[in-house]
Q: What sequence folds into this?
């Protein structure tokens, strides 16, 4: 098992390096003034320009610039945002946890619901139930998350007033203890719901296909021959073996949650990494954009690693490297 | 629990069984009017080529068909007085768990859950009671199926075992319910030659020691000749000929059966001649 | 029961194009017979017609300011007007062109790039495979939206740049699919026979393997198109798509600011996006149902 982990790590690190390299390469290709590209829509005085040029080696060759960027990265220096007047890393550290929170809460709803629907539709002998939920999931999956978010706001927040329309909390919060928790839940409810509906239907479809696959396997017949009840077969054989594709997809979704979060966070003005990215793009704050891109790539790689580990934990064949 | 068996009545009696399956757009008459019986402690063989319906017959009798659409299922399947075609699901499960029938399959790798330890899968067939007694029983069954070091073996996963050992695990699982009747669908087909002989020997031993009835399905007539008192020859879902194994194999009445036996004998003579070169 | 399917008697080999057309028609026929496939095709047909005949259908020219801004739905403005007084119904109709253009364009682009990469990696294997699949992996590491936003941030958002950005984001999936197909098919008998017959590599890759590989690839094209439409709509929603083009997403961008007073700016454009995406997904699902080989192998477990 240890060798497996080591092997995956050995694979992941060069990948990360390559991604960063490509990102920096793309940064090179921006037309126009490199100093302005670095700084954004921000007026630059000649002294400032000279300082920037020297600090970021803008006069030097590309390899030197790449090298210095990597060195900085290793020191935790993701660059500086002139728009926000903060180091990029600080911005990321501030906003990422909020996105992670939103994603996790969304997952907390999406996975159980998706798995449940997937198992029900996959194991039911009632064709109508199967067809209904399958079609429903397909259509629901096609609803754009940001539009669904807007609709939720329209109906539940604006029209009915049951939920706040945006943000993570009120401007001034005086809640304590349990009511603080309720207040938090109140604000996260709608965005998490929008996220969960989309991903939940995706999970339901994956799970259903996986369950259908598993049910066609020989060991299910063996299980029936043993005289096990339907529920015992589902619990003992179907669930675990069907979960493997789901884990892969869930990992993918988690890793790219930043992407979905961009649109959702804009609809709900949720102050997370996605909203930061949009703002940075609008202000042409490329240092921040690059920093976020690298962070996103890192997140994907780390999560893929965890997914691989989880996979190996569940399927013993992978552990033995067969 | 189960209906009292009438003295002299067969353990399993199948009368005019028809199983038609819908595949794609057509209806396949996999089993087309089959009569069959197995007495207590007897061993029968069902032989035929691929597509003859012998496998479908076994699974249809035990209600272990995979997820295929059944177009028709008619006839009588009588096990110790109970009509298997019509009993309730709980009653069927009960028969599978206690002193009823079991089945082992051709592809032990596909028919064992790859993510569960072998011992767990055997334990599943035992069910109930405390974990200590289950653990002992598992080892007992694995040993009876002819597996060495049952305690270590129980912790292994199916893909870590050889084909022959996997088949023995299947046998252990099948024995757990103390069945009166064991169905074996091509039990040795997927195994290497020497291993085949060993597994056959195990089956023979179990048949003898447990006085357990067996129904062996195989396209290999040699296997059936070794193990079975009576034989049924099938083609296209029908039984062409049946009777005492030695009788049928030496004096087949139906021309197709004769052809089948002739080809098999020739094949085995050839295999034996080549066999010395094809050392395990 | 003799289970094997009847073998067709050999006939004169029809031209490959005629063969392709015939199999296209059979598959198309089957797809339309599935519930999902029929619904999907119907929706896509409607969208295609709307896009094609936009000037004839739309009551107003899209950039024309019809009346008061933010007017609710009425007989004159079926879906109301946006903040500059443009008729939303007309905007939606013209927007269909943009969406279909991006959807189809990006999906085909991804097919070409991904298909080429996958084909080469899967057929030639060895070092070509290693390098190409690493590149695929590289591009898959960046989340889709991040990659697109990143490209837009650096290079701007005219239609063509947008198209390239979306293609960059979605091509890896198609590459993997084609790669898997070629990997699987290259070892088969008909390929070995073609090699023995000394047919050129290009011929083998395009005329021999491709027809067998194509079916799931088409499904992926439909799915790619739906993703592309979503991405473009998302960018429009963020205010970052081509301002010269009419985009459903852009209307949603307006809606974001005026949601409390003009619900129609959110409902209708979103519904249009939803319709296009669902239509493509339904079609892909119907096609998948037809070509899924799992169905055919059902009896395999009972063959003896």
A:
């Amino acid at each position: 098992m240890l060798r497996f982990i080591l092997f995956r790590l050995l694979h992941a690190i060069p990948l990360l390096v390559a991604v960063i390299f490509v990102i920096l390469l793309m940064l090179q290709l921006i037309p126009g003034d490199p100093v302005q590209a670095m700084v954004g829509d921000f007026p630059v005085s000649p002294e400032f320009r000279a300082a920037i040029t020297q600090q970021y080696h803008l006069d030097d060759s590309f390899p030197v610039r790449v090298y210095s960027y990597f060195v900085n990265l290793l020191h935790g220096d993701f660059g500086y945002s002139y728009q926000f007047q903060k180091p990029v890393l600080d911005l990321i550290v501030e906003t990422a946890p909020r996105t992670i929170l939103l994603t996790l809460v969304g997952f907390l709803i999406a996975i159980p619901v998706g798995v449940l629907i997937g198992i029900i539709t996959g194991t039911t002998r009632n064709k109508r139930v199967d067809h209904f939920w399958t079609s429903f999931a397909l259509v629901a999956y096609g609803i754009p998350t940001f539009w669904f978010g807007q609709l939720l706001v329209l109906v539940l927040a604006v029209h009915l007033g049951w939920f706040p329309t945006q943000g993570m909390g009120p401007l001034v919060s005086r809640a304590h203890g349990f009511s603080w928790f309720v207040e938090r839940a109140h604000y996260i409810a709608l965005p998490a719901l929008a996220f969960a509906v989309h991903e939940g239907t995706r999970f339901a479809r994956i799970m259903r296909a996986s369950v259908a696959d598993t049910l066609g396997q020989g060991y299910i017949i063996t299980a029936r021959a043993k005289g096990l009840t339907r529920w015992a077969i589902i619990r003992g054989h179907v669930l675990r073996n069907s979960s493997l594709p789901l884990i892969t997809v869930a990992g993918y979704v988690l890793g790219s949650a930043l992407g979905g979060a961009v649109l959702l966070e804009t609809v709900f003005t949720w102050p997370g990494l996605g909203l930061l990215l949009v703002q940075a793009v609008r202000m042409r704050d490329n240092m921040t954009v690059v920093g976020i891109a690298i962070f996103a790539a890192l997140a994907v790689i780390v999560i893929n690693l965890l997914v691989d580990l989880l996979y190996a934990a569940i399927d013993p064949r992978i552990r033995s490297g067969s | 629990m189960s209906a009292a068996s009438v003295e002299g009545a067969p353990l399993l009696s199948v009368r005019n069984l028809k199983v038609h399956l819908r595949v794609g757009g057509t209806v396949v008459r996999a089993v087309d009017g089959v009569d069959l019986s197995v007495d207590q402690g007897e061993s029968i063989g069902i032989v035929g080529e691929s597509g003859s319906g012998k496998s479908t017959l076994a699974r249809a009798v035990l209600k272990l068909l995979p997820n295929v659409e059944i177009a028709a299922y008619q006839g009588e399947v009588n096990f110790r007085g109970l009509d298997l075609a019509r009993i309730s699901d709980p009653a069927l499960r009960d028969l599978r768990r206690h002193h009823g029938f079991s089945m082992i399959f051709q592809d032990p790798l596909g028919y064992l859950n790859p993510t569960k330890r072998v011992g767990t899968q055997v334990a599943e067939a035992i069910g109930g009671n405390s974990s200590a007694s289950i653990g002992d029983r598992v080892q007992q069954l694995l040993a009876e199926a002819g597996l060495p070091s049952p305690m270590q073996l129980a912790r292994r996963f199916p893909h870590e075992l050889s084909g022959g050992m996997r088949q023995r695990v299947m046998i252990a699982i099948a024995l757990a319910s103390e069945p009166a009747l064991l169905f074996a669908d091509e039990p040795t087909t997927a195994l290497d030659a020497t291993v085949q002989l060993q597994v056959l020997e195990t089956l023979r031993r179990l048949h003898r020691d447990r006085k357990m009835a067996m129904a062996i399905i195989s396209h290999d007539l040699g296997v059936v000749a070794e193990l079975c008192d009576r034989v049924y020859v099938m083609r296209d879902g029908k039984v062409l000929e049946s009777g005492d194994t030695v009788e049928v194999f030496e004096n087949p009445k139906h021309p197709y059966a004769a052809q089948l036996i002739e080809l098999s004998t020739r094949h085995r003579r050839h295999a034996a001649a080549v066999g010395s070169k094809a050392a395990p | 029961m003799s289970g094997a399917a009847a073998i067709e008697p050999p006939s004169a080999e029809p031209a490959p194009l005629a063969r392709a057309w015939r199999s296209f028609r059979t598959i198309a026929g089957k797809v339309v017979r599935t519930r999902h496939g029929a619904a999907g095709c119907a929706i896509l047909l409607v969208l295609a017609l709307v896009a094609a005949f936009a000037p004839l259908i739309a009551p107003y020219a899209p950039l024309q300011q019809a009346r008061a801004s933010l007017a609710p739905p009425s007989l004159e403005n079926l879906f109301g007007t946006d903040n500059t007084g443009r008729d939303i119904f007309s905007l939606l109709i013209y927007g269909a062109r943009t969406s279909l253009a991006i959807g189809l364009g990006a999906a085909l682009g991804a097919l070409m790039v991904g298909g080429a990469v996958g084909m080469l990696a899967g057929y030639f294997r060895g070092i070509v495979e290693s390098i190409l699949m690493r590149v695929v992996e590289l591009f898959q590491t960046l989340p889709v939206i991040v990659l697109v936003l990143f490209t837009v941030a650096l290079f701007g958002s005219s239609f063509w740049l947008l198209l390239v950005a979306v293609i960059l984001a979605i091509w890896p999936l198609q590459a993997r699919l084609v790669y898997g197909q070629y990997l699987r098919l290259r070892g088969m008998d008909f390929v070995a026979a073609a090699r023995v017959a000394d047919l050129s590599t290009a011929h083998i890759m395009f005329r021999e393997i491709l027809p067998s590989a194509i079916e799931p690839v088409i499904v992926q094209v439909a799915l790619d198109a739906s993703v592309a439409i979503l991405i473009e709509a998302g960018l429009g929603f963020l205010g970052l798509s081509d301002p010269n083009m009419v985009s459903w997403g852009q209307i949603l961008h307006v809606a974001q600011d005026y949601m409390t007073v003009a619900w129609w700016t959110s409902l209708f454009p979103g519904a249009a996006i939803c319709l296009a995406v669902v239509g493509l997904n339904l079609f892909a699902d119907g096609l998948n149902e037809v070509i899924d080989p799992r169905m055919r192998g059902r009896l395999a477990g009972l063959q003896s």
User: Anything to note?
Assistant: The first helix of chain C runs from residue 16 to 33. Chain C touches chain A through 46 residues (CB under 8 Å). The radius of gyration of chain C is 23 Å.
